[in-house]
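Quick question about two entries, pasted in order.
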Amino acid sequence: MSISRRSARRSVRILGVAAASAALAFTASGTALACSISDFSAEATCDGTNGVINVKDIDASGTSATITVFLENNGADAKQVGEAQTMKGSKEGTKVTFSEDWAPNATYRVHVKVDSGKIQIDTDITPNLTTPSTACKSDESSSPSPSDSATPSPSASESTPAESDSPAPSASDSTTAAAGTSDNAPSPAVGESNLAETGANSNTGLIAGIAATLVVVGGGAVWFGMRRRGAHSGN
């Protein structure tokens, strides 16, 4: 009888330890599956040329949560980004997306609220979300390239001077003109030019002959007059 009682006591102890172990394991597993704020994360990215804010939930229990995003300015809410969204997490991770044309180095507050039985969450993801220092790139295809600009390229007629109809002076013409013209020699006056041209054809000889004849005639007349005076005075 004593041996049976001892065996029964041992069995009870073994069952008690097993039950306690199972309870602890169940409690641990339940705690591991419970939703917590650490299951949530936020990130600012680009969807093409548009800025977006993604919130991810890796809660394996799939507890429903409400997510609200606010733009911060000097520690206060400047505006709410879109409408609040409801999501259920998963072991692989579930995402919700908020469209937001965020500026570089901007700050956003992401609030998580869970109200599901014993699980109560009403707090923000910490730290606040800070956007990248570079904004989303604009669509390069929509902006005109430098080659498509409105500035017209110069045409051939504008860039090349038109040829003159009058022929350019030849080298022989320019040489002749240079030889016949002196920059330092004064040009002759009009009167001097005419005198030089008419000097060979003037009547200077004829005039000189007539003058000499008149001088001889005048001298003879004077001599003849003086002689007659002498004759009268002798009588």
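Here is the second entry:
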Amino acid sequence: MATEDIIDTLAGIEPGSALDAIRARRLQARENAQKSYLSLFEPIDAGDFSLSERAAVAFFVIGLHREPDVAAFYRAKLAATADGSRLVEAIEVEIARGETSGPYGAFPAGPLSIENKAGLIYRVSAERKPELGARLVAAFEHAHLLVFRPRDAAAADMKALLAAGWSNTGIVTLSQIVAFLSFQVRVVTGLRTLAAASVSEAAS
């Protein structure tokens, strides 16, 4: 049985619809996005980055993007994992604490320094650190950095992940997950906007 295309599912695209036809025009891009999702969230071998950790990071990151329908999908995915249901409430609190606007950060000294902008430097609350554990605490703080302050990412941030028990491979996968989710949200939002515009045009 074929796995449903995740972007089609999240965007509410029905087989045979106008949006289905639009996506079919870029079949390779559609297939590559699905393969990326499967490799990141349903891998044959998750290695030392568990499925519950992957879903937890996804729920947190999508929550920061303020996309409730997509967040609900990853919330349910997290709750369905063996270890995940106990984390949902704590992550919801941390999403609320981490919500902000960006991008923030500083460029190296030079012409672009005029674009420097200070903003929230997110840290997991002390109350929820024991519940989330050192690995997720470090992952959430790093993910927040990548979403809102990517220009501030430095070697010290990698060291914090390593100190929390992340392997080099795990850190690469974490970064890939954050990047994929940002892409996924943009695509889903764009497709939903197209769908709404089509409905509005048909009704006028």
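Reply: The mean pLDDT is 87. DSSP finds nine helices and no strands in the chain. Hope that helps.
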